[in-house]
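Protocol step 4 of 5: obtain the predicted structure for the target chain.
Materials: sequence only (see below). No template structures provided, no constraints applied. The aim of this step is simply to have a reference model before the mutagenesis design in step 5. Sequence pasted as it appears in the construct record:
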Amino acid sequence: MCPMLDKSDARCATHLTLANISSAFAHCADQYEQCPIYRQALAELLDDNACQYKETTAAVGILVAS
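Step 4 output (structure tokens):
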């Protein structure tokens, strides 16, 4: 199951409809690794985490230097 479903990403809304239920289930439950929305959301999540890590590391460095 796509881990991005819990994020309620608006980009997924057009795919997650009753009209698309069979293709959405097949795609989001089985082949989500090939989904361009999943890949983009994952890249954004990893980028955000890297930025937070760098900011935290920089803040700790400033506190240690003080």
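Step 4 remarks: Residues 16 and 56 are 36 Å apart (CA to CA). The first helix runs from residue 21 to 30.
Proceed to step 5.
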